[in-house]
Amino acid sequence: MPRILVIEDDIVTAQEISIELGRHGLEVHWADNGREGLSQALLGSYHAITLDRMLPGIDGLSIVATLRSRAVHTPVLVISALSDVDERVRGLRAGGDDYLTKPFASDEMAARVEALLRRRHPVPDTDAILRLADLELDLLARTARRGQHPLCLLPTEFKLLEFMLRNANHTLTRMMIFEEVWGYHFDPGTNLIDVHIGRLRRKLDLPGRPPLIHTVRGTGYVLGEPE
Asked: Were 137 and a residue from 84, 130, 185, 213 both cysteine, which residue would form a disulfide, CB within 3.0 to 4.6 Å?
């Protein structure tokens, strides 16, 4: 069972995080201040860490920087009430792997932690063909097909579909898609994702075939097998 360290001084927020991660089958350990959190992160064997940006004792970014300086590469999700772009950039440059602003939706937080866990064990490069139901993506030949029907995908559509296939049956938030496909660590406030998802749907949803891309209202999208 993956072990998650939650470093958060607010007990209500800590309980919210712990309960939600527990529902996803994760073992959660909690530290309520920066010094204890850093000590546990250095001594414990954790698969991922969530930490508040502002903590008593040692602030969150100092914890991340210390971990990285000591070659501790545990994925870190920084959670902060500071939402401007400069703060996000500071969090990522300090060594954080992801950044989530408060207030946050519990399911998005859990989705981001699960994404960090998957990054630690990525699909090997030898897996050149990704499949879901009758959908097939060949990473070497750069081709896609649904059943016997070839799909003509633009480069960004191919990258988007690859990301969704590697995370099939998992909800992907808009921010996760922006970060992975376009390299943005902030929402540019456009309908970029909606446009590309719409185009991809039209190409995947062939006549007589069940849809594979599903909208998770208020959260994002999931590529999943038809029920």
From this structure: 130
Q: What is the pLDDT of residues 21-54, one digit of tens each?
A: 999 999 999 999 999 999 999 987 899 999 999 9
Question: CA–CA separation, 88 vs 39, rounded Å?
Answer: 24
What's the CA gap between 14 and 121, in Å, rounded?
Answer: 26
Rounded Cα distance between 184 and 182, Å, is 6
> Measured between alpha carbons, how far is 224 from 58 in angstroms, rounded to an integer?
42
Instruction: State the pLDDT confidence band at 1, using cuts at 50, 70 and 90.
Output: confident
3-state helix, strand, coil in the chain (%, to 5): 40, 20, 40
The counts of H helices and E strands in the chain are: 8, 12
Q: Using an 8 Å Cβ cutoff, are 138 and 128 in contact?
A: yes
| DSSP single-letter state for residue 182 | I
For residues 62 and 129, what is the distance between their CA atoms, to the nearest angstrom? 41
